[in-house]
Design brief:
Length: 568
């Protein structure tokens, strides 16, 4: 396994810089106060060392978007003719002028940096707090997370020299505070179930679906085949964060109980970065990691699954893992054709320029033929997880138009939108062309309900949905039941991985960035979910209805219909 080349940060010699005058500095990042849950302890020690990253302005993100849509839209003559690593990177590589200006500033301040991305748009370096305060006209302090007691060093404002305006877009983490919890599965119950009870229920799929969700239930409900995939070049990636470890003994027991037709020695491969690992001590198993692995290996029969464990080396903030994983994949010549991620953040907690940068990185992978699926969140219209709010809180990266957001359903005959299904409209990105008519239709239906609390011109999410409640998993040797859109994303990703297997076996291109296909050719291949809502912010949230809606998207998968839509 290899980590992204160049991630080791070079230490700096002592800096001798003068305090910049205010008139020569321009504020680049600011927040009025620390987020809820953080208290100010006091000034950070001047000698404390910070790992900082700077993002250089990207040369042609509009060209990248155009290229992405060109290879991802079924009506395009270039559909499926994906870009190479180098072709995708050239849209993002900073201009000669930007490189010259930034390098001049770096040399002036004796800053030694490491390039963190194939395109060279991110640079990393270490500085002391005293140096960072001088360089960025900042005031770095120590803040304590009330829930964990963990301390972090952040500033509420920072500036850059005027000559860097338009060339340097983000200094990270600076004003971006760590989250005290990312997207996690919501436990609906935590109890052991007897294996014989499970097996007797799984013989009756309808009964099983009404009680708990198992692989046989999903296969029956969505028409997912049980025959094994055949193309070894097709891979399904599973993101692992927060020291979540996927346990092989738990997977073996899961297959014995829920996929007895599959060898219980079927497993997954491991790739690590930033010091990531995958302890096999059963007491170290992670419920999120177990869930994601068991419902990819257990549904995408025969598809090689790779668990990508992202550690916390080089980390000074939660988004470091997101940045490093995407850059790790961009550096690969052949990244997995499908990636599912069950983690997210609140959109307003991420500075816009940082969010745009990450979103454009997802666009690069999409242009190279990778399908990126993210759980839409478990807080309804309140964001990743429910909290007090007035304005609806979009989720990141679900608001990014270059990924596929997966919401949640519950029940069978018919399915309905589950109450916690994250959904809404981005405040950072406008409505993309591929969903413009669908969003317009929904807004016409929903009218002025909760006027002013959500963005009518924003990118709508989720795009699709799948079952998300009462999933049986094996965790630390016991069968337990979990719920959340963390269940839906690996389920839908497994469907895509199986379709890619057939496409590659037939000599065709994988599906790549899904949304232009989903909102056109494949729209009728999804089962429309027309009931349910996603309450939050002291409201009933949005309402599912005929057609696309911000609770269940376009609907849930119908495998045979999707095969036809994919040209199989």
């Amino acid at each position: 396994m290899r980590a992204l080349s160049g991630l080791a940060i070079i230490s700096l010699a002592s800096l001798a810089v003068c305090k910049p005058t205010a008139r020569n500095m321009r504020v680049l990042g600011r927040r009025d106060s620390a987020p809820s849950g953080f208290t100010l302890k006091g000034a950070a020690s001047p000698d404390s060392v910070l790992n900082l990253r700077i993002a250089l302005a990207q040369s042609n993100p509009a060209g990248l978007e155009e290229a992405l849509y060109d290879v991802s839209t079924p009506s395009s003559p270039n559909y499926g003719q994906y870009l190479t690593k180098e072709e995708a990177a050239q849209f993002i590589a900073p201009s000669t002028e930007t490189v010259s200006v930034v390098n001049g500033w770096l040399a002036e301040n004796d800053l030694n940096t490491t390039s963190l991305t194939p395109a060279g748009d991110w640079l990393g370096f270490k500085v002391t707090v005293a140096q960072a305060n001088e360089l960025f006209n900042a005031d770095f302090n120590v803040y304590t997370a009330e829930s964990t007691g963990k301390q972090t060093i952040r500033t509420l404002t920072y500036s850059i020299p005027a000559q860097l305006e338009g060339h340097l877009t983000v200094v990270y983490p600076t004003v971006t505070f760590p989250k005290t919890g990312l997207l996690k599965p919501v436990f609906s119950s935590v109890k052991a179930r007897r294996s014989e009870d499970i097996r007797s229920r799984s013989d009756d799929v309808a009964s099983s679906c009404a009680d708990t969700i198992t692989p046989s239930c999903l296969q029956s409900l969505y028409g997912i085949p049980t025959t094994a995939a055949t193309d070894s070049s097709n891979k399904l990636g599973v993101s692992g964060y927060d020291d979540q470890y996927a346990n092989k003994a738990d997977l073996e027991q899961f297959l014995q109980e829920f996929r007895p037709d599959v060898s219980d020695t079927t497993s997954f491969s491991l790739e690590t970065l930033d010091g990531g690992s995958n302890s096999q001590d059963r007491d170290d198993a992670g419920v999120e990691a177990d869930l994601d692995i068991q419902y990819t290996v257990g549904i995408a029969t025969g598809v090689p699954v790779v668990f990508i464990s992202v550690g916390e080396d080089n980390s000074d903030g939660d988004l470091d893992g997101f940045l490093d994983q995407i850059n790790y994949l961009l550096d690969q010549d052949s990244p997995p054709q499908t990636l599912t991620t069950s983690y997210g953040d609140y959109e307003p907690d991420i500075p816009e320029d940082l969010a745009y940068n990450l979103c454009n990185a997802y666009a690069q992978l999409g242009a190279r033929g990778v399908s990126l699926l993210f759980a839409s969140g478990d807080g309804g219209v309140s964001g990743v997880q429910s909290e007090s709010c007035y304005d609806f809180v979009p989720e990141f990266p679900s608001g990014c138009p270059y990924i596929t957001s997966v919401g949640g359903t519950t029940g069978v005959n018919p399915e309905t939108g589950v109450y916690f299904s994250g959904g809404g409209f981005s405040n950072y990105w406008g409505t993309p062309s591929y969903q413009a008519s669908d969003v317009a239709s929904y807004i016409s239906y929903f009218g002025n309900t909760y006027e002013g609390r959500w963005n009518k011109s924003g990118r709508g999410f989720p795009d699709v949905a799948a079952q998300a409640e009462n999933f049986d998993i094996v965790y630390e040797g016991s069968v337990e039941t979990v719920s959340g859109t963390s269940c839906a994303s690996p389920t839908f990703a497994s469907v895509i991985a199986l379709l890619n297997d057939e496409l590659l076996a037939a000599g065709k291109s994988p599906l790549g960035f899904l949304n232009p296909w989903l909102y056109s050719t494949a729209a009728s291949a999804l089962t429309d979910i027309t009931s349910g809502d996603n309450p939050g912010c002291n409201t009933n949230g949005f309402t599912a209805t005929t057609g696309w809606d911000p609770v269940t998207g376009l609907g849930t998968p119908n495998f045979d219909a999707l095969r036809t839509a994919a040209g199989l």
